[in-house]
Design goal:
Elements: H1 2-38, H2 42-78, H3 82-109, H4 111-118, H5 122-153, H6 158-181, H7 191-215, H8 223-226, H9 231-263, H10 267-283, H11 285-303, H12 307-341, H13 348-381, H14 386-410, H15 415-422, H16 425-428, H17 430-437
Helix pairs in contact: 1-2, 1-6, 1-10, 1-11, 2-3, 2-5, 2-9, 2-10, 2-11, 2-13, 3-5, 4-5, 5-6, 5-7, 6-7, 9-14, 10-13, 11-12, 11-13, 12-13, 13-15, 14-15
């Protein structure tokens, strides 16, 4: 028993630690933007926080594609069927590249229209336009790199995937400082500098993943697979990916609506909300790492036909996610004085908003941790991808968004009350998640119908 537990925790740490580090680096890029723009002015901070909502929506598509890829790739890798993993990779790449082209076109040619979705303040719209035009090029690079990094995690190269992704993100942070403030003899570019830094770092990430694809013999993009039509595998891929994509859009567009609601409550609310979101994203790195690792870990066991082991792993992961969420919430409370100390550039009103928002974020983390592990990890590992769609559709669009909009624009309740209501989404779905988990519909070997 002790040996079996040791194997479990060894596998979990090997997956979660690198993924958490990469999530942390991603969050630190946003944090560095906020910190650096905080030294410029609040308008720059607010404009970039709204402009990056476009990439947030794009990341929803990438997230859905990578989750759908993990559903099949993890199980086929557990079955030691490398050929099918390469076929899944090519199916995913064709979808992601098409989506990245669409987002590039929208952000490059219609940035003003996109900014108007999130705010009606002219100063924020004008500041966000050059950012979107420059950063749009990075969307094209991510169409390949994000999917290939995902397949690396699912084929025993989690650490190397983290090194590649994190190296690009560290470069992003360094270039942010150089180009935003004009260090080392470069011209001071402000918001445009942050966009250029992101684009360059994503180009480097693309180069690293192409280099890995060419030099490694583990899992490659093969032209013969890229041009083939795998009817049964493609059917299964879309069967499990489309509900995840719908779920990501339902949840993500709902979350974007939170920014829309806050964006129409004034610049102070936008600035405080953007900093609070950055803090949540940084603290949630371990929670999200456990969620991603859960999908791979449980998926490997299901694909290998070890259904009882997968159920045992699921129980342990649920307990771990609960503890991680509670610790993360406590950490937000303990770190809030430090966050407030580094955001003195905010107006007095925005600073007051942020102080209370951080307390509200602490309870949010418990639900976020559990749902990331169970819905996006364990359920998806067994192909149970539709539950998340139904759960988030009801939670976000029938309860939370109407409630938040009604409180903000009809009742004109205080901004912090609106923020509190908008952050209830992860908690109110916990009873339904627990009930569905106990039905064990996710305990399935998805590879058996391919034989």
């Amino acid at each position: 028993m002790r040996t079996e537990k040791n194997v479990f925790y060894k596998k979990l740490i090997a997956l979660v630690f690198p993924i958490a580090i990469q999530n942390l680096m991603t969050a630190l890029v946003s944090a560095s933007d906020a910190l650096m723009f905080g030294f410029l002015d609040q308008t720059a901070l607010s404009a970039v926080s709204l402009a990056t909502q476009v990439q947030f929506v794009l990341n929803l598509f990438f997230s859905a594609i990578t989750i759908g890829t993990t559903v099949l790739a993890a199980q086929y890798w557990g079955k030691q069927d490398k050929e099918s993993v390469e076929e899944v990779l090519c199916i995913a790449l064709k979808m992601s590249i098409l989506i990245s082209i669409i987002f590039f076109t929208a952000a490059f040619f219609f940035p003003r229209l996109l900014m108007r979705i999130f705010t009606n303040e002219i100063s924020l719209i004008e500041a966000g336009i050059p950012y979107l035009r420059i950063v749009s090029w990075s969307y094209l690079f991510m169409g390949f790199s994000q999917i290939y990094l995902c397949i690396m995690k699912n084929s025993g190269r989690t650490t190397k995937s983290t090194i590649y992704g994190s190296s690009a993100l560290v470069l992003n942070i360094l270039l942010n400082a150089i180009l935003i403030f004009g260090l080392l003899g470069f011209q001071q570019m402000g918001i445009a500098g942050a966009a250029l830094a992101t684009t360059i770092s994503r180009a480097v990430e693309l180069f690293l993943t192409i280099f890995e694809n060419v030099k490694t013999g583990v899992v490659r993009v093969r032209l013969k697979y890229f041009c083939s039509n795998f009817v049964r595998l493609k059917r299964d891929y879309y069967r499990y990916t489309m509900p995840v994509l719908a779920n990501e859009l339902v949840w993500g567009c709902g979350f974007t609506m939170f920014s829309v609601i806050m964006g129409h409550l004034g610049s102070d609310a936008v600035a405080a909300n953007s900093v609070a979101n950055i803090v949540k994203n940084i603290i949630a790195c371990v929670c999200l790492g456990i969620g991603t690792g859960s999908g791979i870990l449980v998926g490997n066991e299901l694909g290998g036909g070890n259904l009882e082991t997968a159920k045992k792993y699921g129980r342990r992961l649920c307990k771990i996610s609960l503890i991680t969420g509670a610790v993360s919430g406590l950490f937000i409370l303990l770190s809030s004085p430090l966050v407030l100390m580094f955001t003195t550039s905010l107006t007095e009103q925005a600073h007051a908003y942020l102080q209370i928002m951080l307390y509200i974020c602490s309870y949010y983390m418990i639900g976020k941790s559990i749902n990331s592990t169970v819905i996006a990890g364990i359920f998806c590992a067994g192909g149970d991808t539709r539950f998340g769609l139904i759960c988030d559709a009801v939670t976000m669009w029938i309860i939370i968004i109407p409630l938040g909009a009604f409180a903000a624009f009809i009742l004109h309740l205080p901004i912090l009350v609106v923020y509190f209501l908008l952050n209830l989404d992860e908690l109110i779905k916990l009873p339904a998640v627990y009930r569905h988990y106990k039905q064990y519909k996710w305990v399935k070997n998805l590879t058996t119908n391919q034989q």
